[in-house]
Amino acid sequence: MKEKILIVEDEKDIVKMLEYNLKKEGFRTVSASDGEDALDLANRENPDLILLDLMLPGIDGLEACKELKKEQKTASIPIIMLTAKTQEADKIVGLELGADDYVTKPFSPRELIARIKAVIRRGKEKEKLPEILKIADLTIDFSKIQVGVKEKLVELTAKEFELLKTLIKARGRVLSRDYLLDTIWGFDHAIEIQTRTVDVHIRSLRKKLKVCAKYIVTVKNYGYRFEAEE
Ligand code: CA
After folding, report:
1. From ligand 1's centre to the CA of 11, what distance in Å?
2. What contacts 148, CB < 8 A, 6 or more positions away?
3. Of 28, 91, 209, 213, which is most buried, counting CB atoms within 10 Å of its CB?
4. What's the gap in Å between 10 CA and the centre of ligand 1?
């Protein structure tokens, strides 16, 4: 497969270990030891995935992640964060920074490589979001803006459709209420539109999706995730 992985890590031993294991698996690698270098290389090398350490000198992993996701050129590159603590990691992937996954240190190369392959595969599937997507009992026609449950058409409002589409595009990833609010209602949404609005729309969307409602998973005190076996 020869996909290119950008390794961003300041600990030389970990870099060496990663380079060795990734090359053995047939990946190409480039490495950066700080956040500035990471941004520079991400732009120039256009990697297929970035392994981004959280604790870096200068621009730390979180800042770098934010920057990468802000720039159009690098926004679609999947990012796996390397962190020391699970609690930190939950926040990172939870926050709307756009990290696709995380691995906590110390990790086994085998586990990391499995995650890398999964994230790259997911990215490719998402890229080619087809005109009509069928997930078990749910059919979404993106060109006609139509949704069917068990072959029966359901009437969704524009906002409900956007909500469903946004969740599906990020399949498997948790999206916060704030993120959904900003994405679907816009940054300058009226003050009276609160994050609760998202819950209200999710509720009515679920009601309409009937048996498929279970694909929209609530992440307590945080947001929602689309999860369906295909
Ligand atoms: Ca580090």
Report:
1. 6
2. 138, 139, 140, 141, 154
3. 209
4. 5
The first and second tokens of residue 186, run together, are 């816009």
**Distance from Cα 34 to the centre of ligand 1, integer Å:** 9
d(CA 195, CA 23): 45
User: Which helix (H) or strand (E) segment is 166 a member of?
Assistant: helix 158-169
Q: Do the Cβ atoms of 69 and 97 come closer than 8 Å?
A: yes
Task: Note the pTM of the prediction, 2 decimals.
Answer: 0.59
The rounded Å distance from CA 84 to ligand 1 centre is 9
CA 206 to ligand 1 center in whole angstroms: 42
